[in-house]
């Protein structure tokens, strides 16, 4: 990129948008994921634009998820986001379906008294002898890249000696094979937040990285087994949903018509 290029001075497309298009093409055709784009000074010289124009162009591509800034190092082509459809599966199952290798960093497992929302979800009696649950903290990775931080609560009476099980893979497989509890239903809520310092460090992400947060209560034959909050890196993970303007009730009624 040593040869100077000229952006159109006049016309409906401003210079920062033209530069964004040029950088997007560069990232798509000549650079690999996690490869650095040219420095701001190089872009200023190459395209004969101001630093403000360069930063505005880069900002728009960072917001779109095409580029990623790393403090103190520069700006890099972002890895494509992993895309998921909403379905009942463990993280390990989800990653294997994509041809990726799931792995886990176990941060800790302890028998503790859960918070109120977990007690309610798991149907535990506050203060009772069966009110303790396993708290399990894990970082989930795909092909060695941190994707999600999980904090889960699991009824101790239902899952004795869970702390002696192999927790490096799919918990759902452990529940099924070790305890005879096949997860067959779940209720899930999704929201967004920004990574705080602790979460960012565990996910090897910049501070305030956008997160997709899932709170899930999973059951086996109607028995609550899991209350887990999973924080996914929003720059590495996205959801796909198929929507219809026809309601489920309307489709059911139509199907029942003679």
Automatic annotation (TrEMBL):
The keyword DNA-binding applies. GO terms for molecular function: DNA binding; DNA-binding transcription factor activity. Residues 13-80 form the HTH gntR-type domain. InterPro entries: Bact_HTH_transcr_reg, Chorismate_lyase_/UTRA_dom_sf, Tscrpt_reg_HTH_GntR, UTRA, WH-like_DNA-bd_sf, WH_DNA-bd_sf. This is GntR family transcriptional regulator. One of its GO terms (biological process) is negative regulation of DNA-templated transcription. It comes from Marmoricola endophyticus. Keywords: DNA-binding, Transcription, Transcription regulation.
